[in-house]
Amino acid sequence: MKRPVLLVLAACLTVAAADAVPRRVVSLIPATTEMIFAMGAGSRLIAVSSYDKYPPEAMKLPRVGALLDPDTERILSLHPDLVIVYGTQTELKRSLDRATIPYYSYEHRALPDIMATVRAVGARIGYAAQANSLASSMERGLAEVRGAVAGRPRPRTLLVFERDRATLQNIYASGGYGFLADLLDVAGGDNIFADVKQQSVQAGTEQILARRPDVIVELRYGESAKNVDPSRDLRAWDSLGSVPAVRTKRLVILVGDQYVVPGPRIVQAARELGRALHPEARWGP
Amino acid sequence: MLHAIEVSFAYRNGGPAVVDGVSLAINRGDLVGLLGPNGSGKTTILKLLGGMLRPRDGSIAFEGRRLADWPRREAARKIAYVPQETYAPFDFSVMEIVLMGRFPHLGPFALEGPADLAVAHEALEATGMSAFALRPFHTLSGGEKQRVVIASALAQQPELLLLDEPTASLDVGHQLEVQQLLSRLNAAGRVAMVLSTHDLNFAASLCRRLILVRGGRVLASGPTAEVLTPAAVRSLYDVEADVHMHERTGHLMVTPIARI
Amino acid sequence: MEQVRGRLFVTVAGFGGLLLLTLVTAPLLGTTSISLARAFDRAMPFADNPDAQIFFVARLPRIMAAALVGGSLALAGAIFQALLRNPLATPDTLGVSSGAALGAMLAIAFHFDFAVAGLSSVSLSSLAGAIGALAIVYMLATARRRGLSTTVLLLAGVTMTAFFSALTLFVQYMSDFADTFRAVRWLMGALDVGSYAPLLAALPLTAIAFAMVAGLPRPLDLISLGADAAAARGVNVQQAERLALVSASLLTGAAVSISGPVAFVGLVVPHIVRLVVGSDHRLVLPASALFGATFLIGCDLVARTMFAPIELPVGIVTAIIGGPFFLWLLVRRT
């Protein structure tokens, strides 16, 4: 009499245990999408955000909106068993709660948090080991960059991520906080706006002239990554001739989304930035 | 001096004629009332006479020349207009409002000089508003405002003054004030006046000549005593009324009795 | 009462002197201390002279931009208030600013890449948007046979403002976060032009507008009491209203294309000026232009020094000063 009951109980437990690992994951954050693919769990993803472009496999998945406009209906219709959402998407979280769909709340802060997120997401989707090894390799990669630039004089750097074309108007640079600032630090640069306790600073021409950066790095990503012509685009800086970076022509444009997606490609970003700031250092293969 | 011949006007192209085939003549020193009910086209006729509107049909001639051919400033030195109400969105003083009447006498970039100030002072005196010269216009009562605007019109030194319902929003005391003022100005300065009104008694006591207007047409025109009859009141207002001479004032008085 | 002639002289001399004083002092002030002697030292090549660069590249263009934008917006505000017979009108009332904002938004969201003679695509687009808005409002308001109807003008302007704002919000919504951020910041106003090119580009438009305004002050006085009364006094009302609309819109469009919309200048400066000189537009218009320039230079000085090294968008400073001042004005009137 007891055996069938035990069998059924065991079956239920197995099913339950199997169900505990999400197999239908929706990721609204490009960074976590990249993390999931990088740890080898890409097959678990059933939908991504409208801004996801990497890796190429992600482009084939259906899109369900992003931070400001998540397509709740579409998400629910796909019957996911885990949705990775932004911490601030309270409306969406409430809808998911009502539909009893579990979610992972993503918070974006600074560089160290990226590895922590890799590990947390990995654990959540049952890829803890792979996530750990991914995070560790990222940490090693960053340590390599640090090592390559260690002991070298750190150039005063202006890291620009936004500017009106052909002019010096509306320049936005990295302030002393945030992962761009951390990236710059790892790559061996001295942020000229390190004293500004903000992620982004509207950099005025007077401030730039007064702080005299040795290197100016401009980031181009997304739409602005198209039509990059360094000789033309950097001409606007010529009017600030007294800035060392302009005098010695240490003006660099770095192109790619790896600079603005706090995911696995951050190591690549750190290397490229390090190379731009310290071209003579030993960079290895 | 001013002749209108078969003048018609409509506010919209192809729309109903608000003024229809109106002919009239204003002579020097005249004191004429355009009398008629609301919506009869009196104000429109006044604006046509002042050149602010162009007739659709017919013609208006002033001193032998077509009104439309007169340059604006030149016309404004002869003909002045007092609207029914004046609202000042900005804090102009009484003197500033009166000085605006000097505009047609000055060139495009000219500023008022002592001569202009003198004319303005005279105009204020004539209307009894000298004491108010520096007061802000918007602090004045309705009657006082009206007198200031009349002073402003006088500052143009016109030969013809057009007034649109000058006493419409005034109480009887202020009405009498304005009435006496206009009478005095007409007599003294030989300024011709045409005023539009729906107020029978006001028209009767002030105007020497009346033009009765209804539905955009002239029903009758002539000396007040001849034109203002119970039959006229009936055809203008659909009202049964008594018209008789008042002993003390020496003017005609209309007493309404019943609506027909 | 003193004659206008004397008062005009005193007004222009007074406000002009104040502006001159501000123009001379403002470049000397800033978060970085510079040595004037070094800045004007001809011996040192310009490209090697940080003091000179701070003075001539960072500060001077910015101050001149503030003067141009402030003067233009204040003058435009005064003209719109007279044209609409309403002291609460602003350069934004008739939709020109929101047209400019839409133009800028499109340039930001769709990453327009053209640049002409040192003018960014955002500037050029916002100018195009401003002129587009003016054209629409003008056509709507002059559709009636008898010239400009201010009621239709006001309605057309308010409607266009609402419509363009809605389109702008829509474009913002569809664009990504970084672009939305840029767009929002642009709407707060920024005077750090870093070069004389935008000023030189705006100068012809501004000059044309000033030429149109030249004969307007007295007609505007008369028109503010009523179009019929003004016509009866010899004013060519239709021509004056059209000149007023076009000139004020050109001034607004030129200003907004340099710096983005700067709040309250067009509303508050004419009122301050009226408190001092009265309501005669022959005094109010020049004084508004002169004081608007001074006012914005002052606000920009506060914006770039108060929280150094962080620069506040100048529109925030004008709003913080302008808002409470305006409330006080309203309370005082009632």
Provide an overview of this structure:
The complex is a heterotrimer of chains A (285), B (260) and C (334). Chain A folds into 2 domains: 12-145, Nitrogenase molybdenum iron protein domain (Rossmann fold), CATH 3.40.50; 153-277, Nitrogenase molybdenum iron protein domain (Rossmann fold, 3-Layer(aba) Sandwich), CATH 3.40.50.1980. In chain A, 40% of the residues lie in helices and 15% in strands. Chain A has helices at 2-19, 30-38, 72-77, 90-98, 111-124, 128-149, 179-186, 205-211, 230-233, 244-247, 266-277, and strands at residues 25-27, 45-48, 82-86, 103-106, 156-162, 172-174, 190-191, 200-202, 215-220, 251-255. In chain A, strands 5, 6, 7, 8, 9 and 10 form a 6-stranded mixed β-sheet that branches. A 4-stranded parallel β-sheet of chain A has the order 2-1-3-4, with helices on both faces. The longest helix of chain A is centred in the middle third of the chain and has 22 residues, at 128-149. The N and C termini of chain A lie far apart (67 Å). Chain B is α/β, with parallel strands linked by helices and 260 residues long. Chain B has 2 domains: 1-78 and 159-221, 3-Layer(aba) Sandwich (Rossmann fold); 86-157, no CATH class. Chain B has 9 helices and 12 strands. In chain B, the strands form 3 sheets. A 6-stranded mixed β-sheet of chain B has the order 6-7-8-3-9-10, with helices on both faces. A 4-stranded antiparallel β-sheet of chain B has the order 2-1-4-5, covered by helices on one side. The model of chain B has no long low-confidence stretch (mean pLDDT 90). Chain C has a single domain, classed as ABC transporter involved in vitamin B12 uptake, BtuC, CATH 1.10.3470. In chain C, 72% of the residues lie in helices and 0% in strands. The longest helix of chain C is centred in the N-terminal third of the chain and has 34 residues, at 50-83. Chain C is globular. At the A-C interface, helix 8 of A face helix 3, helix 5 and helix 7 of C.
